[in-house]
Design brief:
By secondary structure, the chain is of the alpha/beta class. It is 30% helix and 24% strand. The protein starts with 6 loop residues before the first helix and ends with a strand. The relative contact order is 0.18.
Protein backbone atom coordinates (compact mmCIF):
# COMPACT_ATOMS: atom_id res chain seq x y z
CA UNK A 1 0.00 0.00 0.00
CA UNK A 2 2.93 2.34 0.56
CA UNK A 3 3.55 5.03 3.17
CA UNK A 4 0.64 7.32 4.11
CA UNK A 5 0.45 10.54 2.13
CA UNK A 6 -0.80 13.95 3.15
CA UNK A 7 -0.80 17.59 2.14
CA UNK A 8 0.48 18.60 -1.28
CA UNK A 9 1.76 15.10 -2.06
CA UNK A 10 -1.66 13.55 -1.45
CA UNK A 11 -3.41 16.29 -3.43
CA UNK A 12 -1.12 15.68 -6.41
CA UNK A 13 -1.53 11.90 -6.17
CA UNK A 14 -5.32 12.19 -6.05
CA UNK A 15 -5.36 14.50 -9.07
CA UNK A 16 -3.29 12.03 -11.14
CA UNK A 17 -5.30 9.03 -9.91
CA UNK A 18 -8.58 10.83 -10.63
CA UNK A 19 -7.45 11.60 -14.21
CA UNK A 20 -6.35 7.98 -14.70
CA UNK A 21 -9.64 6.55 -13.45
CA UNK A 22 -11.83 8.96 -15.42
CA UNK A 23 -9.85 8.14 -18.59
CA UNK A 24 -10.30 4.41 -17.87
CA UNK A 25 -14.05 4.89 -17.43
CA UNK A 26 -14.37 6.99 -20.59
CA UNK A 27 -12.68 4.27 -22.65
CA UNK A 28 -15.50 1.81 -21.97
CA UNK A 29 -17.23 1.03 -25.27
CA UNK A 30 -20.89 2.17 -25.41
CA UNK A 31 -22.25 -1.39 -25.67
CA UNK A 32 -20.18 -2.50 -22.67
CA UNK A 33 -21.20 0.62 -20.71
CA UNK A 34 -24.88 -0.21 -21.32
CA UNK A 35 -24.34 -3.81 -20.13
CA UNK A 36 -22.48 -2.63 -17.01
CA UNK A 37 -25.21 -0.04 -16.43
CA UNK A 38 -27.94 -2.69 -16.58
CA UNK A 39 -26.10 -4.77 -13.97
CA UNK A 40 -25.59 -1.74 -11.69
CA UNK A 41 -29.25 -0.79 -12.10
CA UNK A 42 -30.38 -4.31 -11.13
CA UNK A 43 -28.30 -4.23 -7.94
CA UNK A 44 -29.47 -0.69 -7.12
CA UNK A 45 -33.10 -1.65 -7.68
CA UNK A 46 -32.83 -4.54 -5.20
CA UNK A 47 -31.07 -2.34 -2.63
CA UNK A 48 -33.58 0.49 -2.95
CA UNK A 49 -36.50 -1.91 -2.54
CA UNK A 50 -34.87 -3.08 0.68
CA UNK A 51 -34.25 0.38 2.17
CA UNK A 52 -37.37 2.03 0.67
CA UNK A 53 -36.41 5.72 0.86
CA UNK A 54 -39.28 8.21 0.53
CA UNK A 55 -36.86 10.63 -1.16
CA UNK A 56 -33.73 9.53 -3.01
CA UNK A 57 -30.96 12.00 -3.69
CA UNK A 58 -29.57 11.22 -7.12
CA UNK A 59 -27.17 12.88 -9.58
CA UNK A 60 -27.00 13.82 -13.24
CA UNK A 61 -24.32 11.73 -15.04
CA UNK A 62 -21.04 13.45 -15.88
CA UNK A 63 -18.06 12.18 -17.89
CA UNK A 64 -19.26 8.61 -18.49
CA UNK A 65 -20.55 7.98 -14.95
CA UNK A 66 -23.27 5.37 -14.46
CA UNK A 67 -26.46 6.94 -15.81
CA UNK A 68 -29.22 6.63 -13.18
CA UNK A 69 -31.90 8.45 -15.21
CA UNK A 70 -33.84 5.37 -16.44
CA UNK A 71 -33.90 4.06 -12.86
CA UNK A 72 -35.06 7.46 -11.55
CA UNK A 73 -37.95 7.57 -14.03
CA UNK A 74 -39.09 4.14 -12.87
CA UNK A 75 -38.77 5.08 -9.19
CA UNK A 76 -40.91 8.18 -9.73
CA UNK A 77 -43.62 5.96 -11.25
CA UNK A 78 -43.40 3.81 -8.08
CA UNK A 79 -43.93 6.87 -5.86
CA UNK A 80 -40.36 7.59 -4.76
CA UNK A 81 -39.44 11.28 -4.58
CA UNK A 82 -36.25 12.21 -6.45
CA UNK A 83 -33.92 15.08 -5.63
CA UNK A 84 -30.90 16.39 -7.52
CA UNK A 85 -27.97 18.20 -5.90
CA UNK A 86 -27.20 21.85 -6.57
CA UNK A 87 -24.11 23.85 -5.66
CA UNK A 88 -25.06 27.06 -3.90
CA UNK A 89 -21.68 27.80 -2.28
CA UNK A 90 -18.46 26.39 -3.74
CA UNK A 91 -17.06 25.89 -0.23
CA UNK A 92 -20.30 24.61 1.32
CA UNK A 93 -22.54 21.57 1.15
CA UNK A 94 -24.90 20.80 -1.72
CA UNK A 95 -28.62 21.36 -1.40
CA UNK A 96 -31.02 18.72 -2.71
CA UNK A 97 -33.90 20.01 -4.86
CA UNK A 98 -37.00 17.95 -5.60
CA UNK A 99 -37.22 16.97 -9.27
CA UNK A 100 -39.35 14.85 -11.58
CA UNK A 101 -38.46 13.86 -15.14
CA UNK A 102 -39.68 16.57 -17.49
CA UNK A 103 -39.30 19.43 -14.99
CA UNK A 104 -37.09 22.32 -16.03
CA UNK A 105 -33.35 22.07 -15.43
CA UNK A 106 -30.72 24.80 -15.68
CA UNK A 107 -26.94 24.56 -15.96
CA UNK A 108 -25.12 24.39 -12.64
CA UNK A 109 -21.40 24.14 -11.88
CA UNK A 110 -19.44 22.29 -14.62
CA UNK A 111 -22.65 22.70 -16.72
CA UNK A 112 -24.28 19.82 -14.81
CA UNK A 113 -28.08 20.32 -14.91
CA UNK A 114 -29.87 21.20 -11.66
CA UNK A 115 -33.59 21.73 -11.01
CA UNK A 116 -34.61 25.32 -11.68
CA UNK A 117 -37.28 25.20 -8.95
CA UNK A 118 -35.65 25.50 -5.54
CA UNK A 119 -37.82 23.08 -3.55
CA UNK A 120 -35.28 21.90 -0.97
CA UNK A 121 -35.79 18.40 0.46
CA UNK A 122 -33.89 16.02 2.73
CA UNK A 123 -33.29 12.61 1.15
CA UNK A 124 -33.16 9.45 3.26
CA UNK A 125 -30.59 7.95 0.87
CA UNK A 126 -28.28 9.49 -1.72
CA UNK A 127 -26.58 8.06 -4.79
CA UNK A 128 -23.00 9.34 -4.92
CA UNK A 129 -20.99 8.90 -8.14
CA UNK A 130 -17.58 7.27 -7.73
CA UNK A 131 -14.50 8.20 -9.72
CA UNK A 132 -12.78 5.53 -7.64
CA UNK A 133 -13.25 3.71 -4.35
CA UNK A 134 -11.19 1.66 -1.93
CA UNK A 135 -11.81 -1.47 0.10
CA UNK A 136 -12.62 0.62 3.20
CA UNK A 137 -15.52 2.23 1.23
CA UNK A 138 -13.90 5.66 0.88
CA UNK A 139 -14.54 7.34 -2.45
CA UNK A 140 -12.42 9.37 -4.79
CA UNK A 141 -14.71 11.96 -6.36
CA UNK A 142 -14.27 14.74 -8.88
CA UNK A 143 -12.23 16.79 -6.43
CA UNK A 144 -14.65 19.48 -5.29
CA UNK A 145 -15.36 17.96 -1.88
CA UNK A 146 -19.09 18.64 -2.27
CA UNK A 147 -20.40 15.23 -1.28
CA UNK A 148 -18.12 14.96 1.77
CA UNK A 149 -19.26 18.39 3.00
CA UNK A 150 -22.88 17.51 2.28
CA UNK A 151 -22.83 14.16 4.07
CA UNK A 152 -21.12 15.83 7.04
CA UNK A 153 -23.81 18.56 7.16
CA UNK A 154 -27.08 16.71 6.54
CA UNK A 155 -29.06 15.81 9.65
CA UNK A 156 -30.24 13.13 9.88
CA UNK A 157 -27.45 11.70 7.74
CA UNK A 158 -28.78 9.90 4.66
CA UNK A 159 -27.57 6.46 3.67
CA UNK A 160 -24.62 7.12 1.33
CA UNK A 161 -24.67 4.78 -1.68
CA UNK A 162 -21.55 5.04 -3.83
CA UNK A 163 -22.19 4.04 -7.44
CA UNK A 164 -19.49 3.22 -9.97
CA UNK A 165 -17.63 0.63 -12.00
CA UNK A 166 -15.62 -2.23 -10.54
CA UNK A 167 -12.58 -1.33 -12.68
CA UNK A 168 -12.15 1.84 -10.59
CA UNK A 169 -11.50 -0.04 -7.32
CA UNK A 170 -8.13 0.93 -5.84
CA UNK A 171 -6.22 -0.18 -2.73
CA UNK A 172 -6.71 3.07 -0.81
CA UNK A 173 -7.50 6.74 -1.34
CA UNK A 174 -5.37 7.54 1.75
CA UNK A 175 -8.44 8.87 3.59
CA UNK A 176 -8.16 12.11 5.53
CA UNK A 177 -10.32 13.31 8.45
CA UNK A 178 -12.71 15.14 6.09
CA UNK A 179 -13.29 12.06 3.88
CA UNK A 180 -16.59 10.31 4.62
CA UNK A 181 -16.91 6.62 3.71
CA UNK A 182 -19.86 5.32 1.78
CA UNK A 183 -22.31 3.13 3.70
CA UNK A 184 -22.80 0.97 0.62
CA UNK A 185 -20.99 0.70 -2.71
CA UNK A 186 -22.78 -0.63 -5.78
CA UNK A 187 -20.97 -1.73 -8.94
CA UNK A 188 -21.85 -4.15 -11.71
CA UNK A 189 -20.43 -6.92 -9.47
CA UNK A 190 -22.89 -6.34 -6.65
CA UNK A 191 -23.46 -4.52 -3.37
CA UNK A 192 -20.73 -4.01 -0.76
CA UNK A 193 -21.78 -2.85 2.71
CA UNK A 194 -19.22 -1.09 4.85
CA UNK A 195 -18.34 -2.96 8.01
CA UNK A 196 -19.57 -1.15 11.12
Amino acid sequence: MGAPMEGAELKAWRRVERERLVALRMKIAPTERRALGRAIEAHLTALLREIAPRILGAYWPFRAEFDPRPLLARLVEEGVGIALPAVIDIKGPLEYRAWRPGERLVDGIWNIPVPQAREIVLPQAVLVPLVGFDRASFRLGNGGGYFDRTLAALEPKPLAIGVGFEMTAIETIYPQPHDIPMDVIVTEKGVRRRAA
